[in-house]
Amino acid sequence: MIRFDVVTLFDGYFEPLRTQGVCRRAFDSGVVQLRTWNPRDHARGAHRTVDDRPYGGGPGMVMLAQPLHAALCAAQAARVAAGLEPAPVLLFSPAGRALRQAAVQELAASCGAVLVCGRYEGVDQRFIDLHVDEEISLGDFVLSGGEIPAMALIDAVARLQPGVLNDALSAQQDSFSDGLLDCPHYTRPPRFQDREVPPVLMGGDHARIARWRRDRMLELSWRRRPELVRELERQGRLDRADLRLLAELRGEARDDAGAAAAAGTSSGP
Ligand SMILES: C[S@@+](CC[C@H](N)C(=O)[O-])C[C@H]1O[C@@H](n2cnc3c(N)ncnc32)[C@H](O)[C@@H]1O
CATH 3.40.1280.10 spans which residues of the chain? Predict the structure, then answer.
């Protein structure tokens, strides 16, 4: 069982996770548990204010440290009352470490985390300094709140829990699980608008199919994310057939670069 405690002003975001698709199965079976904590419930004053203007002036509002602090303490106390350890505190922020599958896998094998969702201009820095173990970014763009990154993280973790996917093998073959992008997939019919399914996939030779898939993973990764291939190479995780294909792809790239240089244009990886 893995448990997420989410500190959020907008807990309605999380309802669809409980009721839709693969995540619903994770919640129904109890392998993933989720509880939300609204800082407004822990705010002081008749208006239960959760934000204020930034010191130093400027646009927007900043989330107050006190309601966040109180919501976080309540979440950790509830975890302890449920027999769990207090969990690491993760804050979503564009300034955080980019979310990667390796971190998702690590979290999936843990007891969970407290996820803090920022809003407005962000969170009072003193709350971050006092309580946050790690800041996580969903990418180099700005969302209006941390709820969508929190949902993305919970979804990515939930589908790795035992019994959640119909076929456990599919998570092992997904992009990034062994360091490469996934291969292309085809289903019926065999011909669609003059385009055929690659014949090897129709031939029933499982060894050839596995090699074709591995080659396509390597080729796609090399063309779109060459750093993934270089990392596997550095770790000695490419077999002889992988290295042969990689040599061909590098030869093609050199030929393209030569042709581009001769034509006065630039070319790919
Ligand atoms: C409008 S944003 C604040 C942006 C902040 N002023 C900045 O420029 O970095 C409000 C909240 O959304 C969340 N957020 C926005 N973009 C994000 C991203 N790319 N990754 C993770 N969280 C993000 C954070 O929790 C943030 O505190």
Answer: 2-158
Q: What is the pLDDT of residues 204-222, one digit of tens each?
A: 999 999 999 999 999 999 9
State if residue 54 touches ligand 1 by the CB under 6 angstroms criterion. no
- Note the CATH number of domain 191-263: 1.10.1270.20
- Ligand 1 lined by 145 (C-beta under 6 Å): yes
pLDDT in tens, 162-212: 999 988 888 888 999 999 999 999 999 999 999 999 999 999 999 999 999
Q: State in words which class domain 2-158 has.
A: alpha beta
pLDDT of residue 267: 52
Please state whether the predicted TM-score (pTM) of the whole model is above 0.85: yes
Whether 8 is in the pocket of ligand 1, judged by its Cβ within 6 Å, is no
- Pocket probe mutation, ligand 1, options 138, 143, 147, 154, max atoms within 8 Å of Cβ: 143
Q: What is the 3-state secondary structure (H, E, C) of the chain?
A: CEEEEEECCCHHHHHHHHHCHHHHHHHHCCCEEEEEECHHHHCCCCCCCCEECCCCCCCCCEECHHHHHHHHHHHHHHHHHCCCCCCCEEEEEEEEEECCHHHHHHHHCCCEEEEECCCCCCECHHHHHHHCCEEEECCCCCCCCCHHHHHHHHHHHHCCCCCCCCCHHHHHHCCCCCCCCCCCCCCCCCEECCEECCHHHHCCCHHHHHHHHHHHHHHHHHHHCHHHHHHHHHCCCCCHHHHHHHHHHHHHHHHHHHHHHHHCCCCCC
Ligand 1 pocket test target in 51, 92, 153 with most atoms within 8 Å of CB: 92
